[in-house]
Amino acid sequence: MTADADRPQDPRRRRLLLAATTTALSALAPACAGPRTGTGGAVRAPATPAGTRPASAAAPACVLTPETGEGPYYARNSRARSDIVEDRRGVPLRVELRIVRASKGCAPMPRVAVDVWQADASGIYSRDGATYLRGTQTTDAEGRVSFRTIVPGWYADIAPHVHFKVRPDRHSEVASQLFLPEELLRQVYAGEPYSGRRAPAHPNTRDDRFAAHGPQMMLAPLEEAGGYRASFVVGIA
Question: Which of 128, 129, 151, 224 has the greatest number of beta carbons closer than 10 A?
């Protein structure tokens, strides 16, 4: 796997409005999350590093940023589900997304397809018929979806990330990715199953995409039941 393995293949640049918040989705509807059915080994999370808690309960204004691309491992026909862990071991991570239409006053976008996919603790994506760490959901009336996954591992010179794609209709889609704080990654990677490989000293800052867009697309995880929970508002232009 080369350092360019996850670079966007489409040179066209779509644009998203992204607004990160860790508190706006704390009351996510239980029906959106669904039951936890995966059998992946749960690994207890280390204490949340300083600086990863939200500074304010108010969601900031939307920030215009270019799409980062879907990379080579996207699969359109992922299973419709909330829990995407399957048999993968790692520190639990719940990612809550809310999709809004920025051009209509950030109105929620119901019935929109959202795909999520990522690497496992060893930095490997599911392929050749495997389906772990991939899933699709449709937003509820408030534009919300929730995915249960794990903290992704690293590979090549690419910052660890969670991919997502929003498909508002059959004729449009936008793809980007979410990052995690480097201090949190270093603590997670010091434990099993991540510690079976030598982690980079700086998992994020080796990646030029992180340097360009990381602050706008950074999750701010909170501790939750031996893992983490993080929320993010995605505003479509």
Answer: 151
Task: Please write the tens of the pLDDT for every residue from 139-167.
Answer: 999 999 999 999 999 999 999 999 999 99
Residue that the structure tokens 């899933």 belong to: 135
DSSP string, the chain: --TTTTS-S-----EEEEEE-SSTTTT--HHHH------PPB-PPPPPPTT-S-S-SSPPPPEEEE-----TT--TT--B-SB--TT--B-EEEEEEEEEEGGGTSEE--S-EEEEE---TTS----TT--TTEEEEE--TTSEEEEEEE----BTTB--EEEEEEEEETTEEEEEEEE--HHHHHHHHTSTTGGGS---SSTTTT-HHHHHHGGGGB---EEETTEEEEEEEEEE-
- Taking the C-alpha atoms of residue 22 and residue 144, their distance in angstroms, rounded to an integer, is 14
pTM beyond 0.85: no
Q: How far is CA 194 from CA 163, 179, 185, 190, 202, in A?
A: 20, 17, 10, 7, 15
Residues of the chain with pLDDT under 50: 1-5, 8-15, 19-42, 44, 48-66
Q: How far apart, in Å, are the Cα atoms of 54 and each of 18, 31, 58, 61, 173?
A: 16, 25, 9, 15, 29
Report the percentage of the chain scoring pLDDT > 90: 56
pLDDT averaged over every residue in the chain = 79
